[in-house]
Amino acid sequence: MYSVMLVEGKKLESESIKKWANWKDPNFQICYEAADGLDALNYYTNVMQPDVIITEIQMPGMSGFELIKEIHKINAGQKFIIVSSEANFLYAKQAMKLGVKDYLIKNAITDEDLYIALCEVLKLVNGQNKSHLNVSVESLAASETLQMILSEEVPFDLINQYLYSLGVDISDSVYFIMSFAVENIGTLKSAYVERLLNDLSFFIGPSQDIACYMWQNNFAYLGFVKSDLSQFSIMKREYKVSNAILKAVENVLGSVRVTIGVSQITDKIEDVSRKYWEAEKARNYSIFLGGVRTLYYYENPCTLSGADALHIQMKGIENAINNRDIDEICRMINNIYKNNKDSFRKYLHLKYASSLLINLFMDYCKSNSIPYRYIFNNGFLSKRTDEQNETMDRICDSLCVCFKLLVNGMKAKTKYSKFVRNIVEYICENYNNHISLNSIAEHFKYNKTYVANYFKRETRETVNMYIRRFRIEKSKILLKTTDLGIDDIMYLVGFNSRQNFYMEFKKSAGVSPVKFREVSKIQEDAV
């Protein structure tokens, strides 16, 4: 019997995990249930070191990642499985760097996923882990054969036979295709092509994968993975191949730009040419921000796929903005994010969606002369999202709030006179400073009674009421979309008294700031 420590801050979810696997079948037994990372570390240090640790990432006191780092200082060989609600590509990437054996998503996990993960770890504990990719077929003959297959020069019914002749056994495997291209250089000479393929084979290590040169600095890679592996393990394999490609190209050609397209996984070898087309289509989009050079293809059978559908959705959001329809804007943004958050591969799609929405938001702010300070804490908008600290749900909610304030700002532009609009803009730009009716009247060089009456006649509230309401709405956004402390938020939005802040907040929201954040988190988890 092998021991397992379960580290999960929520009792209900801990009970759910215990029901997801037949613990007697893989010969594992839960020896301890830790309430958080600190509790787990204390047990590990003072009581016993279990064979396997299953942990969540987000926990009070000490996160799952911090726990893994601390335990690896004690025992570098400790085996971990992450079972988390965080479907964030960067979390998965961090897990790989820390040597986590599997990464399972709570809202997508099945009994089979956890069973397979435990069995794979059982092999590691016993020292029985053997690579399923143990046949090296990186040769000129294999490359030429793959080129013929992808060029559809081999009949579909003979593809299996061709691969078998190369020593490739795909009976218990699924596969993916990568298409990668070296950009902005002349056509590669054959000697460089051969060296690049050889280096790629070296960096990948022993496997039955095949790479080949296709045309004009375009290459293809056929990668195999065992059919019973989890989504996380497949992603790790794709990630490894992608890094090996970049490393091989840099080793042979120096610092040049490379783009990589990745197909969907399939077990139907007769679909190999279609999978190559998928990888090519993904690579040709080449539209993501920053240094992202690996693009994934996916297709939703209920909708148009990829960027084509996304651009249509953006047009719909534009129309809703022009119609000042806040509900429709939020519905469409939610449809983009919350219907796509369950897959690591769709992370890149959502990253691109974020860039389009941010650019759309910026364009409308500029065309309507709405200052960023009306919506953000600063007079500028950074296009870099701190993805380490953001979930897709939070990004989605934050964008909905931004567009809601944008539309309200557009409505105010047409609703109020220029004088009142100037006052509103001044409040938006200075709400986090010490401002009042007196300071606003002094700034615009008007009598404060005149300002007060003029403003109230159009807005139906006093200047100070408007300032307080605006500050409270900003605090709600920060409570929903950040992990900042309550006092930090209070000062950021311009309140200097905790008592006044709590009183005004409860008057507006009906609950305290702490309760508001708790309820918002519960609603987010429930979606």
From TrEMBL:
Residues 3-121 form the Response regulatory domain. InterPro entries: Aldolase_TIM, CheY-like_superfamily, Homeodomain-like_sf, HTH_AraC, Sig_transdc_resp-reg_receiver. Gene3D superfamilies: Aldolase class I, Homeodomain-like. One of its GO terms (biological process) is phosphorelay signal transduction system. Signal peptide: none annotated. PROSITE patterns: HTH_ARAC_FAMILY_2 (PS01124), RESPONSE_REGULATORY (PS50110). Keywords: DNA-binding, Plasmid, Transcription, Transcription regulation. Residues 421-519 form the HTH araC/xylS-type domain. It comes from the Bacteria. GO terms for molecular function: DNA-binding transcription factor activity; sequence-specific DNA binding. This is Regulator of RpoS. It comes from Sporomusa termitida.
